[in-house]
Specification:
By secondary structure, this protein is mainly α. The chain has 22 helices and no strands. It starts with a helix and ends with a helix.
Length: 435
């Protein structure tokens, strides 16, 4: 058997080679953990992980909320709730400078409360909003950047899949974390709205104000289409906050509520249901492969004692707490250029969470900061996942460099929001403290 340090070097080298070769990150994590345990512990322990972890992970009551929230988002999309949201936001904001981009941001933020999926948000609003903004003369860089950045709001606004992953890895309250994401999510959206307005005022050629004549009655009529998403949001988050049900039950209630809405709107067909469940199944499977691989990798760090050694060494440096937090942020931003946010969390949290909590950071607050960093990583070049989703889903001819140019001001806005959340932890902890 190899000593833990040597096994760690071998595993790290193997994982880098696999990532460069384009191997799926879930397979990279799982295979790296398996090889590490094989080399540093024994073959029986390594095979035991392969035999038990996939079942124990997919059999987890807490993780069961992920497919339910994914299904809820898929049903909400099929019900046309996204389109209704966009129309309502456009009716109220269309005449304001940058109004169409603001409408996209606002609708994406609200839809994030139902979908919980960043990729779904980005793909849906690219197909819906990109042609409209282009038709009214919006610069493609601003349009695509706005859509890519707004899609990340689903990572923070509850319900959020990343919140659930964080809660499972760190053994924190899912309910408190979901509620904690509400104010930061609204703050992120508000900063985007103000930023878009400033850009549109300073450079009006990027976001021309369309000649619209929308009456007050038309505006109020447009709000009738948002009742479905509002009902889902109140049902899920209200039930959790008031203690009527735990998050897993909330996911089931939300999915059933979305099913009733799609039936009420007479959009329920056998083909629709098959496609919806298929899409939800594919998304859920992808997430679980990453989580399973991450857990096997975390077992390698734990069994070999590497986790304790790294933690003791970093705490022994006796740095100021803010130095550890900045290091945590830097790791997220660097990894975010290369791999999926869920993979980042399952890779880093087993090591960084005990260090950051030991120097005094609140675990609930830390969860929201980690997810905000994951949001930023989704639009960070050269491999911001949402940028590629927007580029791939766009019905308008669009170059990758145009999207990266467009997200740059939104990256700066995200850094501003992150600074506010760090400077004023009460923004995160106020609502959970009332539960």
């Amino acid at each position: 058997m190899l000593d833990p340090a040597t096994a760690g070097v071998v595993v790290a080298t193997l994982m880098v080679v696999m990532l460069v070769c384009g191997v799926h990150i879930g397979v990279v994590l799982g295979l790296g953990g398996f090889v590490g345990i094989l080399l540093a512990v024994n073959p029986h322990a390594a095979l035991a992980q392969i035999a038990t972890v996939p079942f124990s992970t997919t059999n987890s009551f807490t993780l069961a909320v992920i497919p339910l929230f994914v299904l809820m988002g898929a049903l909400a999309t099929q019900a046309g709730l996204t389109r209704d949201l966009y129309r309502a936001a456009y009716a109220w904001l269309g005449k304001i400078a940058g109004g169409m981009a603001m409408a996209t941001t606002l609708a994406s933020a609200v839809f994030g409360a139902a979908s919980g999926s960043t990729i779904v948000n980005a793909a849906v609003f690219t197909r819906m909003a990109m042609p409209e903004m282009t038709r009214f003369g919006y610069d493609k860089r601003l349009s695509s950047g706005c859509i890519a950045a707004s899609g990340t709001l689903a990572s923070l606004i509850p319900p959020s899949i990343l919140v659930i992953v964080y809660a499972v890895i760190t053994e924190q309250s899912v309910a408190q974390l979901l509620v904690a994401g509400l104010v930061p999510g609204i703050l992120s959206a508000a900063v985007y709205l103000v930023g878009i307005y400033i850009i549109a005022k300073r450079w009006p050629h990027l976001a021309p104000t369309p000649e619209l004549n929308i009456t007050r009655r038309e505006k109020w009529n447009a709000l009738k289409g948002v009742w479905g998403i509002g009902a889902l949001f109140l049902l899920v988050l209200g039930g959790i906050y008031l203690g009527f049900f735990v998050p897993t039950y909330a996911g089931a209630v939300g999915a059933f509520g979305a099913f009733l809405i799609i039936a009420f709107k007479r959009k329920l067909t056998g083909r629709t249901l098959v496609e919806t469940f298929k899409d939800a199944g594919v998304t859920t499977s992808t997430i679980f492969i990453i989580v399973i691989g991450g857990i096997i990798f975390a077992r390698f760090l734990t069994y070999t004692g590497l986790l304790g050694d790294i933690t003791d060494w970093m705490i022994g440096l006796d740095l100021p707490p803010i130095a550890y937090l900045l290091g945590f942020a830097l790791i997220y931003l660097i990894l975010g250029m290369l791999i999926d946010p869920i993979a980042i969390m399952v890779m880093t949290l087993p090591v960084m969470f005990p260090i950051l909590t030991s120097v005094g950071y609140d675990p609930i607050w830390l969860g929201i900061i980690a997810i905000k960093l994951a949001e930023i990583s989704l639009i960070t070049p050269p491999i911001g996942l949402n940028v590629y989703v927007v580029r791939s889903a766009s019905p308008v001819p669009l170059r990758l460099e145009e999207v990266f140019a467009g997200v740059t001001p939104f990256l700066l806005m995200d850094l501003l929001t992150l600074g506010l959340l760090i400077a004023f932890p009460t923004l995160v902890l106020f609502l959970p403290s009332l539960m």
